Amino acid sequence: MEEVYVNASTIKKEAFYINDSRDAKIQNCPALKKLIIGKDVEKIEDGAFFGLDNLTEIVLEEGNTKYIFESGSLYAKGTKRLVRAVPVGEKDGKKLYQIAKKVKAIGEGAFPRSVEEAEVEFLGKIEKVNDKAVDGYSKGSWKKENQIENAKGGAKIVYDAMNFVNAKEAKIEAVKKASADALVSVALSDWQYGFDEANGHSPARKVYRVKLPFDAAFIINMKTKPTQKDAQTVFDTINSLKEITDEAALFEKVRELSAKSDISVKGSNRELKLIEFSGLNNYEDAANVKSAQGLPPNGFIEKDIASFFAGSTLVWQMSIIADSYSTKEKPYMPKVEIAIKKNSKIVSIVWNHWSIFENAKGNERTELASLISIVKDTETDNLESALKESKFPKSNGVLVFSE
């Protein structure tokens, strides 16, 4: 067989491997070149494709929600674990494997043994590599010439990555055993946008302003002598953010972390979370932060707003209008107009300033999410009455009119 379509719920380990010493004619699907993974496949076990040295094409059927195939890499959507790589072309006369940027872990049997004679390039940062990542190589009971330390070519590149990850993990473990203050210091000193210490509400609190693009920031608020648990939270948070290079995705992740933060302290007039948003230099004014502290480009705002409509079938348009009073010294976020079409009706809404973050004075993001939900869940003829019953401020100018 040269081509196989598989739509079982689980593809088990060594699914294509036949080991029967009684019949010397049995081989391990040597001709199989193309594998089609069906939409109903929910689990592919490590080592599922062992023995498929000549597999050059993988197709993922549309509708599969568990796996992603890109840049020659089949990987799990949730864990970002590489299940199998196939060549994407040639380099210097050798087959070339390029591992997709989003892949974070290399599973067992992710590469065929023929990768020995190939080139391998990692487009992203790998955090874990299985010690049986290449078919036929292991730390265990293989012959000496097939052990990891004797790998060469593309296989050596894979195991060099494993050694690098292991060395990095060992260093991180050493850092984790340091004092809580040292742990926070290591995390912040490695942050690409910089940080500074900010004024807190109390001398018993230590506050860091961790910078983001466009002069925005998030706040880390902790005791002067943080506990190991608090310090570990900061360390893990900063390290999870360092991997994100897209600015819109970075802001979204920081928003998510802030909403989920469960380490807090009661302030005089509000609860202060471990991770909070700020766009100001002085932490004492953080409650009144306006997202006008530094202007993102229109492309960023477009991506930010588009994320609200992701997965929706609603038709919508957006217009971004610069604030006439905005200057370099005192920038103001632009006006945003959004029109959402549903059948014969169009719902229009205007905000004088778009907020990057939710904050005390700006609730544009919450309002847009609510508006989309109402439009999506309401019958066309009932849109006007549904919006009147909602809590949108009249000043935002929500209008409903026929096309």
Task: Summarize the helices and strands and which ones pair or pack.
Blueprint: E1 3-6, E2 10-11, E3 34-37, E4 43-44, E5 57-60, E6 67-70, E7 73-76, E8 81-85, E9 89-91, E10 94-99, E11 105-106, E12 119-122, E13 128-129, H1 153-176, H2 180-189, E14 195-198, E15 205-211, E16 217-223, H3 228-242, H4 247-260, E17 264-266, E18 271-273, E19 275-278, H5 298-309, E20 315-321, E21 335-342, E22 345-351, H6 364-377, H7 383-389, E23 399-402
Parallel strand pairs: 1-3, 2-4, 3-5, 8-11, 10-12, 11-13
Antiparallel strand pairs: 6-7, 7-8, 9-10, 14-15, 15-16, 16-19, 17-18, 20-21, 21-22, 22-23
Give a structural overview.
The chain has 403 residues and is an alpha/beta fold. Helix content is 24%, strand content 25%. The chain contains 7 helices and 23 strands. The strands form 7 sheets. The protein has a 5-stranded mixed beta sheet with strand order 6-7-8-11-13. Strands 14-15-16-19 form a 4-stranded antiparallel beta sheet. It has a 4-stranded antiparallel beta sheet with strand order 20-21-22-23, covered by helices on one side. Strand 9 and strand 10 form a beta hairpin. The longest helix is centred in the middle third of the chain and has 24 residues. The chain is globular. It starts with a strand and ends with a strand. About 6% of the residues have low confidence.
Instruction: Please mark out the parts with pLDDT under 50 across 5 or more consecutive residues, or reply none.
Output: 263-270, 279-293
Report the structural category: alpha/beta
Radius of gyration: 27 Å
Question: Average pLDDT value?
Answer: 81
Distance between the termini: 57 Å
Read across the widest sheet, the strand sequence of neighbours is 6-7-8-11-13
What's the shape?
globular
Strand content: 15-25%
The ordered H/E elements are EEEEEEEEEEEEEHHEEEHHEEEHEEEHHE
> Helix count?
7
The level of helicity is: 10-25%
Largest sheet: 5 strands, mixed
In total, how many beta strands? 23
